[in-house]
Amino acid sequence: MNYMVAGLVLFFGPHLVSTMPSVKAMKVRLIGAKAYKGLFALLALAGLVLMGYGKSEMSFGHVYNPINDLRHAMGLIMWVAFFLLASAHMPGNIKRFTRHPMLWGITLWSAGHLLVNGDQGSIMLFGSFLIYSLWAMFSGNLRGAKKATTKVPVSKDIKIAVMTLLLTIIVMFSHRFLFGIGVV
What predicted TM-score, i.e. pTM, was given to this entire model? Predict the structure, then answer.
């Protein structure tokens, strides 16, 4: 559990700093923009590695019974989550409907996983991402996040949808290899 906690701190610490403009600005002034971005990326990557290792090392501490019937819907939930994540970084129309497509994708990914996993490690991992994504949307809105106004051809959204559908299928079939838990 110590690796999981260390990973959560290393990952979410810098992410939380980025939701506080005055603290972030002070850090950037102290070490420079490039060094800040590099350190941010390094800490986030180290945090992800430690979270993954920590989750794999945790004993299965049963907390609640997951909703097993929802396992069949997880493919659709994950496809929508991947679609939102990709739409945040690619030209498409989703940003005209929500200010935070990436954070909504993380919210769906984490909430879906919480519904189908009832162990302590899953609650720590996915619960942390869920809480952070909701906080980041709230704080982003307070800072004036805006929806996009530029329309792009729907073909761009279709391209993202097809690409993320393929990604979802790949992740589903390789989930056991990647994360130690089979889903198909």
Answer: 0.89
